[in-house]
Amino acid sequence: MSSLKVTPAKSFDTAIDSIAPDKSISHRCAIFSLLSDKPSVVRNYLRAEDTLNTLEIAKGLGASVEDDGEVLKITPPSQIKEPAAILDCGNSGTAIRLYMGFLASRPGFFVLFGDKYLASRPMRRVADPLRSIGAQIDGRENGNLAPIAIRGVEDPDGFDYVSPIASAQVKSAMILAALNAKESSRYREPHLSRDHSERMLRGMGAKISEEDGAIVIEPMSAPLAPLDITVPADPSSGFFFAVAAAIVPGSRVVLQNLSLNDTRVEAYKVLQKMGAKVSFELKEDKYEPIGDIIVEYAPLHGVTVEENIAWLIDELPALSIAMAYAEGKSVVKNAKELRVKESDRIATVVNNLQKCGVEVTEYEDGYEITGSEMKSAVIDSHGDHRIAMSFAIAGLRCGMEVEDIACIQTSFPNFVTLLSEISEVQVGD
Predict the structure, then answer these.
(1) Boundaries of domain holding 273
(2) 223 domain residue, yes or no
């Protein structure tokens, strides 16, 4: 088990042009390339454990991949093949759930699995609606836990599905299944979740529209156009350094070439409401709006976060660090989904903040944090990359030791390198 020691930082003013490429978009590039009959070209693909596993699964399904270290050329197979081995999704809920949707509408037998953390995450939220259109899906606890076995169905029925949760993963899985259905399908969710799938698939020629609060998906009449995309930097990864600037007095950071999609920058807007100086500079807008985000230190105050939770669910652990340094009380509500991420993020945030001397009250769907000065502590990441990186950022203010940091490689391989440019860090066994 490796650990990371972080010493307090002095004020900093820096521009970062090497934030990890967007994880969500990278996953989708590998999977969506299989919907075309021509090679897709992907620049700036995230080369982290999770996204490389997703790419390997595409290869296991028959795609060929050329990689010169900068550009991927993904050539889809003429027909998806049945792999001779299980398909390893590593730590990624995005990979397993999106591939479930993709494979449910393809004839053949497929088995999806991952690491011990992924094996404990719920899958019936995807399995049950896919079963309703004819796919045979099984796994532990009646298909709720991996390994997930799928016997896909060719030309499944269309559907009119109302999801009880706002989840980009569930939505994307159902859209992928709907593209091969016999007739049009409709999908509804309580609130709009992140919309990368709809944007990218429309850009490839898929007929996806909105009507009376539902997403309407028309079946593909022909293979989609290939992707020709440069993956922007990941705003969820960049947010760690946004919080760093927001909590270290006198600091400023320019995060370059990030996705500025409204469904991806909500956490920055919360940080802005808390008092940090945050501005957005749009540079281009093709598949995604892309630009820079500038964050400057200012005294923070407490805030209640209870809306658009699906837009900032991944950033809440890092946001909790800002809340811990804010004057007054901060409250997170309607975030029960945090309990089924790579760890139970409500419990891990609460327990680790308490180790740091912060007053925290845990609720079923969130927590209340009373701002104060955090104290240095030894933190258990529970194998969760976002917990590990969030508390490493806290160390820039108070010093911190984070245990079990290997998980950082799943999403942000150069995180420690960038952190070391701000303050002294030490990696140990």
Answers:
(1) 3-20+233-428
(2) no
- Distance between CA atoms of 315 and 107, rounded to whole angstroms? 37
Which residue among 314, 380, 384, 404 is the active-site one?
314
- Provide the mean pLDDT of the chain: 96
Q: Is 67 a catalytic residue?
A: no
Mean pLDDT within 53-60: 98
Contact 32, 220 (CB under 8 A): no
pLDDT confidence band for 381 (50 / 70 / 90): very high
pLDDT at 1: 53
C-alpha 146/C-alpha 24 separation (Å) is 21
Cβ contact 258:290 at 8 Å: yes
| CB neighbourhood size of 190 (10 A) | 12
Look up residue 75 and give its two tokens. Answer: 């050539």
Regarding whether 127 and 56 lie in a shared domain, the answer is yes
Q: How confident is the model at residue 288 (pLDDT cuts 50, 70, 90)?
A: confident
Q: What is the pTM of this model?
A: 0.88
How would DSSP label each residue in 20-34? PBPHHHHHHHHHHGG
CATH number at residue 247: 3.65.10.10
How many Å apart are CA 34 and CA 418, to the nearest integer? 34
The DSSP string of 334-390 is: S-GGGGGSSS-HHHHHHHHHHHTT-EEEEETTEEEEE-------EEE-TT-HHHHHH
Q: Are residues 240 and 125 in the same domain?
A: no
Q: What is the pLDDT of residue 429?
A: 78
Q: How far apart are CA 258 and CA 26, in angstroms?
A: 13
Is the predicted pLDDT of residue 422 greater than 70, yes or no? yes
